[in-house]
Amino acid sequence: MVLGMAAPLLFVAARPLTLALRALAPGRVRRRIVALAHSGAVAALLFPPLAAALDVGGLWLLYRTELFAATAHRPLLHGLVLAHMTLAGLLFALAVCQLDPVRRRRGLAVRGTVLLAAGAAHGVLARTLYAGPPPGTGFAAADLRAGAQWMYYGGDVAEVGLAVLLGVGWYTAAGRARARPGRRDSSKEAHGRPCEGTRRPGKTAVGGGQVVAPGAAHQLGGSISRPEGRQ
Predict the structure, then answer these.
(1) Cα angle vertex 172, ends 111, 5, to 5°?
(2) Domain residues for 129?
(3) What angle do CA 7, 145, 125 make, to 5 degrees?
(4) pTM: predicted TM-score of the whole model, two decimal places
(5) Most exposed: 34, 129, 188, 231, by fewest CB within 10 Å?
């Protein structure tokens, strides 16, 4: 639970790639990080259905086959399984949330659907463990049910956290997209609006703020006549 779900959630919420790009000075290391983040391999790994298959599919393979029983007597295999769970959980959290700048951002519908499907598959796996132990193991019934409950409800908490990060990311991106046209319009108005009280060349100001060309001034008759009392 800690390595595969809680740690990846907290790690992704910290936006490590964005933090690294802000902290590093322009140079070779920063360019390499950007190139790696925008590479085709990373884009393929961050495809949400693939990340979900590696994460939840690995859990099904671990607990519904004899692999879990084999890790009890093989420390190296046990370490490899834990490393896979950590990396797969981190990959899934990155693919669903996508808070850091990557090459291709998947739509909200795709990421939300994958999150719901992965949560359902994780819940079903926990229920199967509640009913029966992993093959090749002999856990006591009380211990098995307690572990299955931890997996079921703990998975729900982690998935709600991922959903919150997904919603915050969508809300922030939508707010920025809506604010851009307003900033452009205000900038255009500020640069394109003439200063009050100025006159354009070749124009004559008349009463009421009306501006006409010099050749048309005589057609206005008394509108620009001399003030009363003068001949």
Answers:
(1) 45
(2) 2-177
(3) 60
(4) 0.72
(5) 231
